Amino acid sequence: MAVLVVKRSIMHRYQSIGQAIEEAAPGDMIEIRDGIYEESLDIGKRLTLYGVGNVTIKGGVFIRYQTHVDMRNLRFRQGQGLYVKGDVQLENCIIEEQLIRTQIMVSYGSLLMKNCAVLATPLNHFGLRVANGSSVILVDTTFEHHVKAQVIAQNCELTLANCMLLEGKKHGIFAIRHVKMTLEDCEIHGHEKAQLIAASSEISMTNCLVHQGQGVGVQLFDSTTFRMDGCEIKEHLDSNMVVHRSELMVSDSIFSDGQGHGVFLGEKTEAKFYDCQFSRHVKAQVFIENSKVELRKCQVRNGMAVGVTIVDEADVSMVECQIQNHQQFHIIVDASGLQLQQSTIQFGQSGGIYGNDHAKIMMQHTIIRELTSHHVYINNARLFTQHCTFEQMIGNGITCIDAIFEVANSYFKDGQESPYAMIWSDQSMGRIEHCTVDGAARPFLALSNKSLMEMRHTDISTVKAPAVVQENSQLFIQGHVHCASWQKDTASKVTRIEGMSLNREMKELLKHDIKKII
Question: Is residue 411 part of a domain?
Fold first, then answer.
């Protein structure tokens, strides 16, 4: 293995890099001394090129198919770009201001870049383009100011570790399709459109920061699989993350301070979030549309609108979550399903949960407290609660309009003095059973507009009034311990069913659709 020295001096045999490449044998090393070399390089043999001092190459670089080349300590400036079809390693290099749109092109080849920088002028649309089954690894490398995308990839494998993609005019990374990409300890910052966009690809992102973009932070669609752990996505002028028709798994990550949504999930996306935080978004912090989503041990707090919005036949499960401090309802469920378990909703400037348009809400071991408005408000929807706690109520605890509901084994406590009932049913059908009610200067139950209710084994002896029944409503009670009279109008009925045989009409009423739905 020989070392060929290139220097612009009449005292040296090799005054051009091209001359040294032509005469070098495979495996040789070419040492390039100080200077500016205005020439293009066509390399078709295994070589190592390294610079000593300040070495600038002004010209195109072409690495031929199945050729291994190592290049170190070189600056490529104002040339025709680097075109890689072979196997190339760049270390401590700068690629800048190339006179074509794509500064580095890898096609049918492989590239390893370590401690490099790729810097653009307005002429440079792309910093790195990877395609056609290529494999690229970027380590400690920076891309800046490209017009369309700092990195664009298609049908390839791409790994970025401890890299920075900064202030591009459009995208940071654009993975078009069939891209398998891994990002670790990277920063993507300041792009005018989606900072990372992927379609029909497989992406894994760990310990990355995506922030301060003028568009969306991360945008995924068309069957992309995306896994993210320990990342932070924040401070975008649009939503921090938008996902359509894709699969998403996120853990230990933070979404914050966006002018749009924290996360928007739509068009049959399947997503799981574990131990994540969503905070300080202008729109709904989590917006779920026609998708299946699970949130576990997540915190959704301090939003300027809704905490979680669930619409259009979405199916959502929330387990051990904390939802607090929103200016509108903490959770809105419209024509969708929500299962809420072992969670807490608290400290809101409006209500807790709003269900509408045939929504189905199931709550277990959940606490709702200290809200300015309704704890739960459902309209033309279904509600089922088990072992829940409703406390520090100002307005109605549970409001049901044209709804079906069951409240079982639940606890009502610290209801402030109010004309509002803890549970209000309007043109609804429901059951309350085995509940406990603390003392409160307000009615426990209000029925209106042909409501039908069964209340079983619920102690309401400490409330101001057990129930107000009016407007052709019917209440069947069993096992209560209140000795005061029930308040009702002449068109309504309050019937005690303990110790008596029910007639056929009562039996039909009490086995109505609640049984079927439950």
Answer: no
